[in-house]
Amino acid sequence: MMDLSRYRKDFPILQQTVKGRPLVYLDNAATAQKPLCVIEAVDQYYREYNSNVHRGLHTLSERATRAYEEAREKVARFIRAPRSEEIIFTRNTTESINLVAYTWARQFLKSGDAILLSEMEHHSNLVPWHLLREERQIELRFIPVTPAGELDLSQLKSLLDGVKLVAVTHMSNVLGTVNPVEMITAEAHAAGAKVLIDGAQAVPHMPVDLQAIDCDFYAFSGHKMCGPTGVGVLWAKSEILREMPPFLGGGEMIHEVFLDRSDYADIPNKFEAGTPNIAQAIGLGAAVDYLSEIGMDNVWRHEQEMAALAIEKLKSIKGLRIFGESAHRGAAISFEIEGVHPHDLATILDEQGIAIRAGHHCAQPLMRKFNVQSTARASFYFYNVPEEIDILVEGLKTAKRMFGYVT
Amino acid sequence: MSLDALYQEIILEHYKNPRNFGKLDESRAKAHYENPSCGDQIDLQILINDDNVVEDIRFQGRGCAISQASASLMTEAVKGKRLDEVEKIIESFTSLMTGEGEITVELGDLEALEGVKKFPVRVKCAMLSWTALKSLLEREKKS
Ligand SMILES: Cc1ncc(COP(=O)(O)O)c(C=O)c1O
Questions:
Q1: Nearest CA owner, ligand 1 atom 14
Q2: What's the gap in Å between B65 CA and the centre of ligand 1?
Q3: Is the pLDDT of residue A220 over 60?
Q4: Contact flag A373-B40 (C-beta cutoff 8 Å)
Q5: Residue A205 C-alpha to ligand 1 middle, in angstroms?
Q6: Ligand 1 in contact with A96 (CB < 6 A)?
Q7: pTM value?
Q8: Contact (CB<8Å) B66/A344
Q9: How many other C-beta atoms are found inside a 10 Å radius of the C-beta of residue B143?
């Protein structure tokens, strides 16, 4: 197995004990931990050059502006975006998707148009479209999910009829499934639809090449990829960004303002009204440097190996059921154990220093599809080691014993 | 370990074999409560006779051991009790969970849930059926 354990020491938070045991952090799909270099980049900004960007003509402001814009360039290179001005800093994936829904979709979608989503979407890629549908007669369609937890693309061509936007997740935060976004994009484009990919679970874990995918919009969050909370990214093709109306109005996003009207700035500023999350964007730049040094190929290989090993070991527990059996998958693994509710599992594991997530994972329609209210989810990152899988399995066996079942 | 205090034998027993599980006549008012953050669900129905005594009470639900055992124990505690006694039980149980207010009645088996207090995120699970009961009683009072 690929050994990335040397990177663990970079994470101060992973050195602690919880309830007297070394912390086993397996809730990485919710948010990832931060390496010292990211914490220090944020710290350094506040200590040495805190000032506003794009405004001041003084030394500190120039330095802050440079660092902020460098972060944009780093992010662009990281996901192979053709141009760095196509990187819009937002707060998170949710805001990025909402930005598209509130600007592009409200400008270009008319009553009668259809949007194609999937049954495995996070609420953040469902609710913005529900809101849009409250304003106009948009039809929402859904690519079904198979019992194995994959998108059923057999009817894709007919589903695409009349569709103006396809919005799907790159990797499911519940099932771990990686969707064939290049193929979906090609089919959608052939049918005349634009494509938005929710990359919240993909960018942190695998090499992402936007030029290869060729989608129109791509959204992700900094906090799931070792960056600070409060910064996310919307990437879109520049010609699309230029024809989109602005999202929020205010400072930074204007070219010239008169009392009764204003001309908007060019991209990316047009979509970054007000003082942005400067420290967080700089921190995200540091996270991108850090991940690039490890190499996203290595991160991805390690996670696939960890997923395979974890699934094999979890299956040795009697009565344990895993949701999602795709061969194309990352290391977010949802499961349930017969007779022990996921919340009880989470509480019992926490008492042993193991952090997992239990709940609906902001994907209630998908829960309904699998006829469960909630699942337990263990999600791994490159700093997790195989021994932590064993600790998880032992913890789950303890839970079963507490509930009076043989293991 | 405090986990043993949380998952006492009696709680697990009620989780696996819930008492008063099921439905009353469809015509009885029903309270449906769920915890949106975790999906625990409770449906509760109650039958109060002319002497203001809880003649029957039934619940259906899905959820964790704490929420389901609490519902089961609750139905046992209030069945056959007068409404003024039921109100005291509700108040006392709420005090047991929150550490605020007074415990004025014998809680009996319900005391097994005391361990939940040490797990603040789980208090909501234990209280779910009790919130449903309170709202049902308020509705009954009005009608
Ligand atoms: C697939 C997916 N989409 C969207 C989101 C929303 O991300 P955020 O809460 O950072 O906006 C998440 C994470 O919770 C996710 O896993």
A1: A30
A2: 29
A3: yes
A4: yes
A5: 14
A6: no
A7: 0.95
A8: yes
A9: 6
Q: What is the pLDDT of residues A231-276, one digit of tens each?
A: 999 999 999 999 999 999 998 888 889 998 888 999 999 999 999 9
User: Does any ligand 1 atom lie closer than 6 A to the CB of residue A122?
Assistant: yes
Quote the ipTM score.
0.90
Known catalytic residue at A226 = no
Q: Which fold has domain A5-30+295-402?
A: Aspartate Aminotransferase, domain 1 (3.90.1150)
Q: How many domains does chain B have?
A: 1
* Domain locations along chain A: 5-30+295-402, 38-293
Q: What is the pLDDT of residue B140?
A: 83
Residue B1's pLDDT is 53
Could you tell me the two tokens for A111? 């009553």
Q: Please answer yes or no on whether B38 and A348 come within 8 Å at the CB atom.
A: no
Which of B1, B65, B66 is opposite residue A351, by nearest beta carbon? B1
Assigned fold of A38-293: Aspartate Aminotransferase; domain 2 (3.40.640)
Written as six digits, the tokens of A121 are 């979407």
Q: Is the pLDDT of residue A112 over 80?
A: yes
> What number does the ligand 1 atom closest to the CA of A172 have?
1
A124 CB within 6 A, ligand 1: yes
Whether residue A280 has its Cβ less than 6 Å from ligand 1? no
**What pLDDT is attached to residue A210?**
98
